[in-house]
UniProtKB/TrEMBL annotation:
It comes from the Eukaryota. Residues 1-17 form the signal peptide. This is Cell wall protein PhiA. Keywords: Signal.
Amino acid sequence: MKLSYSILAILAAAVSALPSELTNFFLVTADEATSASNSSMLAGVSATSLFDPFYRDTPVLRLQSEGYNSLPNFTLSSGTLHTWTYGPHGQGYFQYNSTHVSANSTLRFLPDDQGEGNLGLENGYLVTVDGKCEGWSICPGELGSKVLVWKAVGEGCIKTYLQAVSSPPY
């Protein structure tokens, strides 16, 4: 009997160590493709938020430093990321949906239905494009921001991994 309880305990510990499928999450960038139960422990971690300094209807995902007031929660369905946020000039509250991601394009969001997208989660936490998690970069954006670009072509871009986490860093 003691042996079977030991085996069950080992199996339970192994299963709890596996990443669980997140349904409501924050997005962070990290230097490595490893997960951590505490997102602050990820190497080179940065929180992300939607950003559009010119009040258009197409915000991008940018890095957010410490001291933020709040961060968007995301869901993923039909290959599209979804989040709720205020519209331009704080007018209205809308569900923003990620656009189709292609090479050398920023991760953008629109307040309209985008249909079937090409995003997914590998191992329950790495954000993929067409099944690939390698290809994300942090690149210079508008007004000195740092934005997420898929398969970036240009100077000043740094390779990163985009991850879904249950709690934000810092």
